[in-house]
Amino acid sequence: MVKRRDLFKLGALAGGAAMIPVLASEDTGVQAFARPAAHRHHATTTFSGRAVDAPEPFTVPLPLPPALKPAAVLPDADVYRVTTRPAVAELLPGLQTPVLTYGGSYIGPTIRATTGRRVIVHHTNTLDMGTAVHLHGAHVPAAHDGFPTDLINPGTTRTYEYPNRQAAATLWYHDHAHHMEAEHVYRGLHGFYLLEDPAERSLKLPKGAYDIPIMLTDARFADDGSLVFIMDDSGNRTTLLTNGRPAPYLPVAGRRYRLRLLNASNMRVFQLQLAGGEELVQVASDGGLLPAPAPTGTITLSAAERADVVVDFSRYPAGTELVLSDTLTGLPVLRFDVEDRVRDDSRVPSVLRPADPLPPATTVRDVTFAYDFALGWFTINGKLFDADRVDFTINRDSTEIWRIHNSTSPIGVPHNLHVHLVQFRVLDRNGVPAGQGPKDTVSVAPGETVRVQATFTDHLGRYVFHCHQLDHSSMGMMAVFEVV
Known about the structure:
Largest sheet: 7 strands, mixed
Low-confidence stretches: 1-45
Helix content: under 10%
Distance between the termini: 37 Å
Mean pLDDT: 90
Number of strands: 35
Strand content: 35-45%
Oligomer: single chain
């Protein structure tokens, strides 16, 4: 193995205050982050060409990912087939971009599921590298969670079964093959999985054509339209994409719409605001409905977080143009073009889904995000990911509180925590009580401490928790827990 001095390929941190390696050294005992030869042609580790700027905003319509049709309908399950394959997509107008896809499009087809009815997905991998499909936010058996080293090898098919024994929520599926998850997701391996239930339907929230999934990503493009991937290069991924297009527009009728907002970027935080602060009514978070609607002027989403909001466009006259922007960059995300009013039977009730009482916690654990200056790596509790090491052993049916602390304040790097298998409740942030919506991902700024509580119920086995800034998890900021 090569020595430390030969290994360091440096890239700027998200905060720009330090540099990190994408390879580890022989003398640390850490497995090197080196792509197998078959992977390298997909990656851009250096870039000497000319980057292309985003086109003028509002010149392309918002595309909507199509719903995937079942290949078979069984008495108790719907069966789907998805092929992972390379494709070419028009992300920037007039340019063709090579992407990796579920089914041929930059955003994979949407799977619509119902609580209490199983979904079976046969994933066939035609790439020249392994993949692992994770249904983000789902409560599933360990064998179907997409463990990072449990790969679908090239040319093979793996079957995932999802019991859907959880409340309605906006979930999403994406690649989780360790060391490659950041690049794979960046290049297009992501899609919506929308779980519905009768209780949510009875609320009469906007549905059908008025229920819009919106995936937010960012990208760096070369002048030929190809995606430039450099690890931890978030500062140069300056083109924002909304359902795979730059600053598109969407004609909307003068009525209520439900917008399912998903931050599927690797690293970026989006701070979304409508037309300078017009009202957004949040009705759901990662794990489903809030106890009650929460009117707000700003929605902040770190990587992988979701928020469902309702916007009443009947408040605006036909011809109004409302721009949804990212206030952190000042860039437009999506323009709504309001048309004539139409009949609207939807509503936003004052009570959505009352929060269940929290059972008493029997265990308190610490999860510390840090930067190890000796190793030159981000770590969780001082360690890098090892698929064979169990970091937390958790008893089935137990309730735990996790104290998540970001100790990288000297170099100013934000992180967030995603826990597989469970939804949790955020108890407080730096001691200040937080909201009660069900979550599976939570942001932790430098120097912050966030406490979350979760109950681990029926499924046994090994799962992971990690920073969902995927460039960080790809470099080892991940750990294993086992439910016994």
